[in-house]
Design goal:
Uracil-DNA Glycosylase, subunit E; six-stranded mixed beta sheet; 45% helix
Length: 206
């Protein structure tokens, strides 16, 4: 079984998950979408109304802005992978509860471990807090941060170290016009970050 088949199998398993209360109130599980060979994994907060209807992540207004930013750096959805901290829509789009994020973590961890991305991009404070606890998004957005996981802090089967890039959630631009330019400026740095991580791969893809 290749990586794509393994990821498809994993995502199908999520569809029958009912480990937390969110499954009782949402229409369907939204596992994630994209390439199993992606160099970049984007991680947001949770599905919204449109995502709950379609079963696909980031398809509402925030998703359209994400697509726009991807095109700026010459990437498409099929080049990356997009997932969320929780796979089911919280009622009325409220913030997911810590318990809900903890329960759903096992699924996200398996996705990351299977894809093994060069770069994890956190979208918003929920994913930032999970991977880089104690950091303030206002201080670290647009920055690449390397985190080494010691034996005591390592989260299950994540790698010994991982590079993260911090972005505001695209939805922030929908409520604050000035945030749009901030996000685009930060987004444009992504190719340079990938080049620094693995110059040979970046040259091959250009």
């Amino acid at each position: 079984m290749n990586k794509t088949e393994e990821l498809e199998k994993l995502n199908k398993e999520m569809l029958s998950c009912s480990k937390c209360e969110l499954r009782k109130t949402c229409n369907q599980v939204v596992p994630g979408e994209g390439s199993a060979d992606a160099r970049i994994v984007f991680i947001g907060e949770g599905p919204g109304k449109k995502e709950d209807e379609t079963g696909k992540p980031f398809v509402g207004a925030a998703g359209k802005f994400l697509d726009e930013m991807l095109s700026i750096i010459k990437l498409k959805r099929e080049d990356i992978y997009i997932a969320n901290m929780v796979k089911c829509r919280p009622p009325s789009n409220r913030d997911p509860l810590p318990k809900e994020k903890d329960i759903c973590w096992a699924w996200l961890e398996k996705q990351i471990n299977l894809i093994k991305p060069d770069l994890i991009i956190t979208l918003g404070r929920h994913s930032l807090e999970k991977f880089l606890p104690g950091q303030r998004i206002s201080e670290v957005h647009g920055k690449a941060l390397r985190r080494e996981f010691s034996k005591s802090s390592k989260q299950d089967s994540l790698p010994d170290e991982q590079i993260f890039y911090v972005l505001y959630h695209p939805a922030a631009a929908l409520y604050n016009g000035s945030m749009r330019e901030v996000l685009i400026k930060d987004f444009k740095r992504i190719p340079k970050v990938l080049e620094l991580i693995n110059p040979k791969l970046s040259q091959k893809n250009n």
